[in-house]
Amino acid sequence: AQDVSTLEHTPLIGNGRAAVRAACTDLAGRSELTADANVTDRLIALGAKLAFYEQAFDAEDQLAVAGQLPGLSTRAAVELHLLRARALHLRDEPEAAVQIVREQRDLARRSGAGAYWRLAAAVTGLGDTRAHLESALTGLPPAADHDRLEAHLRLADIAHRGAEPVRATAHLTSALVLADKHGDTVAAAHAAARLGHLYLELGQHSDAEPMLARAMQLARDLDDDLAVTSESSLLAALQLNRDDLEAAWETAGAEAEAG
After folding, report:
1. How far is CA 94 from the centre of its chain?
2. Cβ contact 43:4 at 8 Å
């Protein structure tokens, strides 16, 4: 049970998610643990959460089943129901998603899952999205870094649309720090590219160039040729603008290789 508790407090992001996936597979094969119904239910719940963070569109059924398991705490069950709401929203079933969020509101508050409710309410468009996200950031536990990163990215979008570039930059920087902390290359590439583009919009070329270079390298690590082409073309233009022909030529070579 101690092993399962450790897994339940491990952030399901980047390296942590990979470690939890491997550990769950190992624990599921240990008969002395799976004979305990409580442990089995908690492992099933962890599997459902992993499914959501890896492919949310296909996780709704697993989350629905896991949320009804008798061996879970009220808080754990509420968290699963709220993840299910987010999965339904992504599957373009907004009415069903909002209904779950409304049903779980009071129970979430009483069980200490209020921050998760706030995030689900923000994602499904129930109430003031910005207020919900900002409140969630202050209440999410350390193990919820994946959700914390998502909140920062969503708040960056809101700030950008609201012509608040400084606020958007702060949220993207926080998202990049979290992605780096957990070795989440996909999230880091996304945050770095958005930061580079934002710095360009602000005319902060000295900040944009290293961020675009990082985004390009991360895209190469991910074999994302489209992103490599996008970031390298912007980076080469900046290098040409400061008359660094050698650097621009090298960057153009990376773009040609990707293309």
Report:
1. 20
2. yes
Angle at 10 between CA 28 and CA 1, to 5 degrees: 45
pTM of this prediction?
A: 0.89
pLDDT tens profile 110-150 = 999 999 999 999 999 999 999 999 999 999 998 999 999 99
In this structure, are residues 228 and 216 in contact, taking their beta carbons and an 8 Å threshold? yes
DSSP-assigned states of every residue in 174-234:
HHHHHHHHHT-HHHHHHHHHHHHHHHHHTT-HHHHHHHHHHHHHHHHHTT-HHHHHHHHHH
Are 185 and 223 in contact by the 8 Å Cβ rule? The answer is no
> What's the pLDDT tens digit per position in 70-110?
989 999 999 999 999 999 999 999 999 999 999 999 999 99
Give, as one character, the DSSP assignment of residue 127: S
* Contact yes or no for 101/82 (Cβ under 8 A): yes
Tell the burial category of 175 from Cβ atoms under 10 Å away from its Cβ (0-12, 13-18, 19+): buried
> What amino acid is encoded at 48 in this protein?
A
What does the alpha-carbon distance between residue 89 and residue 123 come to, in Å, rounded to a whole number? 8
